[in-house]
Amino acid sequence: KLLKTFLSQPNEMFYVRQLTRSTNEEINAVRRELNRLEKTGFLKQEARGNRLYYYPNKGYVFFNELLSLVAKTTFLGLAIRKNKNKIGKVKYAVMSGKFVRHMDRQADELDLLMIGTIILPELSVLIRKEEARRKTEINYTVMTVDEFQFRKERRDPFLLEILYQSRIMIIGDEQEMLSQRNKNDATE
Fold it and tell me: Is 0.85 topped by the overall pTM?
């Protein structure tokens, strides 16, 4: 619960009582886990006034892996994975690293790329829920597999910008997505 709290808002600082309320756990259990997470190097602390604040150490050796796990198993990542069949035939679902890290993004930066045969109204419901939770608009693009391959082969600037940025794969294999040829081409 603490990992989820810290990694779903990696730019925030939390104090002990705030964490006990958000995790619905006993204060001593939270303190014990905070101490353990600090000893591993995952958390840092900072005293401000009469409170001790904790925040994730972005230099922690497993920070990106943990961030990826939390992105896949909570909120929009979880909703996409859970509703994969309802959304359509999803080949790849990719979130931008900035989106996952809650960093400031430009208005034209993409937060989510969905590739496959996607049922837009179903995806839109999930997007709207996440927008309400985050209180911000989510920029997303949907492409068919053929369109994705075509644009990738033509080195489309819009697609290349997405592929060169940090990203978290929610569905699909990253290596396969980035390879020059897709599986169907290789078998022909």
Answer: yes
